[in-house]
Amino acid sequence: MYGNFFYQNPSEVLFQGEGHIAFYNNLLVNDVGSALNVQKHNDKPRRIDIFQNTIVARNTGIKVRHAATDYVQRVVANAVFASTPLRLDPLIQNQDNFLGTYRAALSSLKGPQNGPGELDLFPKSAKLRGPPIDMSSFARFEDWNRDFDGVPRSATYRGAYEGKSGGAAWSPKLEQKPLPSNMPVR
Question: Which of 27, 45, 82, 185 ranks highest by number of CB atoms within 10 Å?
Fold first, then answer.
């Protein structure tokens, strides 16, 4: 699941899953709760790849719990702003994530306090930039090397945006995101 915008849910987490999950290049905003839970429900989480998402959540950003130990679970290169950015089982591979408090999103992202249509989760200057990350292990996933707007990645920015240019091409709204061929150029 990639390239999606998840917004506000007062009664549940924005995304819940188990089994085999690839979750990347998504934007998640929940000012009243948590963002992403991968946990046991009918069975155990198995192969889990959560990478290059931008998350702003009042409570927990990413939670991965009770996963099957004979599968790999990875949480890599996300930008997570939450009261509890990560809540992971000890065996979960956790690397190169940018973690901050819920309030820190204001100093790291252009407009996380705005509503749909004006919301801007693009990084301010080089706030979410770090050393290059080897992301080649994700190459089996479609568009793994493109950001939320479809821009080619350099593997130096954490979160859903490449971050090199001035801002997001599409301001997240409560409507279907344009296809990459119809996306404004940034």
Answer: 82
